Amino acid sequence: MQHADKLPTGVLDDVRVLDFGRYIAGPYCAALLGDFGAEVIRVERTGGAEDRVVLPLAGDDGGAMFLPLNRNKKSVSVDPTSDDGREVVRRLVRTADVVVANLPPQGLKALGLDYESLKAIKPDIILTSMNAFGSEGPWRERVGFDGVAQAMSSLCYMTGQPGQPTKFYGPWVDFSAGMLAAMGTMAALTWRTRTGQGQEVQSSLLMAALVPGAGLLTEQAYTGIDRQPNGNRSQTGAPADMFRTKDGWIIVQVVSQALFKRWARLMGEDIWLADERFKDDPSRVINNAAINDRMSAWCAQRTTDQALAELEKMNLPAGPVLNAREVLAHEQVNAIGAFTQVDYPGLDKPATILNTPVKLTASPGTVRTPPPVSGQHTDEVLHSLGYDEAQLVALRERRVI
Asked: Which of 50, 78, 117, 261 has the fewest CB atoms within 10 Å, i.e. is most exposed?
């Protein structure tokens, strides 16, 4: 039995990850691994990577998108296209367990980060690669961002009003691809523990975008129904929409006969329980105008808090529609520890960033260190690889680091 002071502080304490990711999917995957104890070394070009300045907060070195995606990381600044830079990368790979990179196959190969090249350096390496459209097929080398994958998933078509496809504001596809890649990496690490074998873990924006529409696509393939968008109204039940209150908006989602019975009683419309128009979810969707009108009238007579309190008494799913300021202040958001604060050079106050989004009771993920400035740990890491001070000076003079 281990003593308490001998227990690991994280599930992945003995794992080293090289993060060549940029923007969201790759960096978020590596950040999640770092939350659970992995040593994550962000490898970026000299002078700093382009993703540092998205939504700038701290000049040219730290943006509002960069900060939450790069907690718990070290930064090594190196030019991987030069011969000396390639040697630095090779030495790093020899010490690593996982390489994370979100590039098309040809991009990986050009930088020597494809699986075959990495495996030749370290046979049990795990490569976690992400790209826009997958590693096979005619679109494998195309570039694409979150919005492109959203558009190709059918969900932009189904969002908004007829005749106006609507993209979701947040880059949910990027984050989903990063989460799926992190899950795959953990599975690959478990496989390597059992067999000693490394492998490539592949994630793509297109595949991640298809996941939330799984039911819609299965239904379409089987029935050919060709569903059309209808704003915020659900196509699987009613009332399931956003409704205006005296002082804001709420969302109510009544899906299933049990919930509809409770809703009808709350509205004083028990007679609707014997009405053929509302006998089941499909019928209620067809006849949702009457249901939504009743719900709208009820909400218009109440404040958001009053409406939610009455809906809660009937155990009906509902919540407020919040803006960003309201999210940061919401009692439940803060009760679950959704945010933490980190210091960062150039900011006159701590930055609020999202915490680890999944909780483990015995070995929780934690935000231990703030995101690094560009090249902050170059000397430290290269010293550990065997470079002496004179070699570092020479590499810096040649702008390799």
From this structure: 50
